[in-house]
Design brief:
Structural class: mainly beta
Radius of gyration: 17 Å
Low-confidence stretches: none
Strand order of the largest sheet: 1-2-3-4
Largest sheet: 4 strands, antiparallel
Mean pLDDT: 89
Number of helices: 1
Shape: globular
């Protein structure tokens, strides 16, 4: 058990993530928290890193060991306390970043309040998901969660359920609370 007494910055936890070294990260409303071996927490926030926002929705570590931090006001990519910043002014068409995933080929996908984007080059330029998969259109702009399995993408929406994008066969399977028996989920809100 751990909480504020152990140094956790906030009890509102938006994401739970284990990095490549099996260290626990908690994304909170007051910054990302790294659990130390002694069960205390190292908190990264505006006061000790170049994060410009403490409201963190997601933490992810890619195949190159870079950390990706999704906040209400941008995406931060880099290593621990020194991040490159991406927002509407420098490459990412959306400010609010909710989730990340990486496909088998190393592509980074970013879910935001304004859609789903893929990092397309080393300069950290991003393109909309429909530019990569011309057969696919988002059901709504607010993508709350994204995942990858066997090269396929899963996109969870604020109110429209879940899409499974079969990238090889160029098919989309939709899951909702009103769907067919095989495609039914308990609720359309995916967070």
């Amino acid at each position: 058990q751990f909480g504020l007494n152990e140094g956790l910055s906030d009890t509102s936890i938006n994401d739970i993530y284990f990095d490549h070294n099996m260290r626990l990260w908690l994304a909170t409303d007051k910054g990302p928290n790294l659990k130390r071996a002694d069960n205390s927490f190292l908190v990264f926030d505006k006061s000790n890193s170049n994060l410009t926002d403490d409201l963190v929705f997601s933490v992810y570590q890619d195949q190159q060991d870079n950390f990706w931090i999704g906040t209400h006001y941008g995406l931060f990519a880099g290593y621990i306390s020194q991040f490159d910043i991406f927002d509407a002014t420098n490459g990412l068409p959306s400010e609010t970043v909710t989730s990340f995933t990486e496909t088998e080929d190393g592509s980074i996908w970013v879910a935001t309040y304004d859609g789903v984007f893929e990092r397309i080059d080393a300069q950290e330029n991003f393109q909309e998901v429909s530019a990569h998969f011309n057969f696919f259109r988002l059901r709504e702009r607010k993508a709350m969660a994204i995942g990858s399995i066997s090269g396929d993408l899963l996109v969870g929406y604020r109110a429209m359920g879940l899409d499974l994008i079969d990238t090889k066969r160029e098919l989309v399977q939709h899951f909702s609370d009103t769907g067919e028996e095989d495609n039914r989920i308990s609720h359309n809100q995916i967070t």
